[in-house]
Amino acid sequence: MRRLPLIPLVLALAVLAGWSAVAPAPADANGCYLRFLQGTTGTAEDPILIPDREALTELATSSACFASSYVFKQTADIDLSGGAWTPIAAGSSFIGTYDGAGHRITGLDVSRSTGNVGLFSALGTSTVRDLTISGGRVVRTTGTGSANAGALAGTADNATITRVHAVGTAVAGMTHVGGLIGQTCSGSVQSSSASGAITGDAAVGGLIGSAASACVVSLADAETTVAPATVAVADSSATGPVTGANVVGGLIGEAYGITVERSFATGAVTASGEEAGGLVGNAADGYGMLTVAPTTVLTDVYATGSVRSVGSAGGLVAVVDSGVQITRAYATGRVTGAASTGGLVGGPYAPPCPGSEIFVCSVGVTAAAAATSFWDSATTGQSTSHGGFGTARSTAEMQSLATYTAAGWPIARGFSSAAETTWGICPSANGGYPFLQNRYTASTPPCAGTPGKPRKVRMTAGDRSVTVSWEAPVADGGTPV
């Protein structure tokens, strides 16, 4: 047998020893033994791959994997049909990154009487992106313990969720039920959506059941809060019907000290008890439990679904507490309620002052200038809105570009890809009401015709025929807007 020269061998061993000292350890060194792992480090450059149902199931039950800040990447569509799904990290939290890479998960079937329910039970400090959950159902039946329910996760604390969609996934539960997330605090939901039917008891929303800037925790049987951080919901939507007993919203059930931008809801909202809002059921500052509570800000938003409640009801928000700002918003859905009702905002939230030192009693309401937001007085059936929020307009005015340019909206006739243009309007899109430009791209424009091109129409009166030319831009195939 030929021997290797001693010096090169020693050098080779030294190089290998040096490399092993700086290279990241494989995930399986921590006890994460997913199939096909093969020494994968679980970093962004070397993610742990999830190719099928079996691998996803292993992730769901392996705490060494889901609680170790690894990066997971789905590499194909996965069908979960044919059996009940046990949520990932049941009884715990997923800590890490799950990259759906544009793939789908179909056939999700969750029905449990304990814990948070969803594809994930709970998301901790984590990231989930580029994933679609299609069809299926998530049900939290009557039981004990945390009972949040959402297609993606029952709870999401400090999580970043981007481009995640629940398409036609039905979600049902008790308190904190959402089309995507049951309850969230101190995180963000960006460019995401839900379209399934959502039902629950309290804090029920088409996208999120409850969203707060401060996470409530229990210490020695007394509630307190962690430091507040902004919850941002942006460029997102919900389009399914939402039904509950109390605090029901087309997009979010209850919103406490959060920011919602460039988002909308179109589903019908029904509350058998109190508080139904086309976009948000109850909006207030950061839970009213902080000395300096963050304001809830709703900017560039709209709701078009019908709203019905036995109590308070509003086209956009059912009730508001102190620390709420609404700017550039509108509502068009029919509003029906037995107590406080309004075209944009139904009424004030006025609970008794809690007898606890950690609460701060709310005083007054912060309203945006009435001229910045609107509601359709004809379609909503409402002539007033609580607290000076919004201005009533006729349907013709609501469908006129002039109404919004006069109010300073960043709006264009038809589609525009300009970053500073948030809104667009034309007769053939969104029922003739303003639409958010983020819903479309240059390759999928919302309006027929070519903006800016003069049109000619031949008109006949008696025995005479004349051609009329409009020099104003026309963004639709009909008359100028």
Describe what is shown at a glance:
This protein is mainly β. It has six helices and 45 strands.
What labels would you give this structure?
481 residues, mainly beta, eight-stranded parallel sheet, 6 helices, 9% helix
Structure, described:
- With 481 residues, the protein is mainly beta.
- Helices cover 9% and strands 41% of the residues.
- The chain contains 6 helices and 45 strands.
- The strands form 7 sheets. It has an 8-stranded parallel beta sheet with strand order 5-8-12-17-24-28-32-36, with no helix packed on it. An 8-stranded parallel beta sheet has the order 6-10-14-19-26-30-34-38, with no helix packed on it. The chain has a 7-stranded parallel beta sheet with strand order 9-13-18-25-29-33-37, with no helix packed on it.
- The N and C termini lie far apart (89 Å).
- Mean pLDDT is 83; it is low at 1-23, 218-229, 352-365, 450-457 and 467-481.
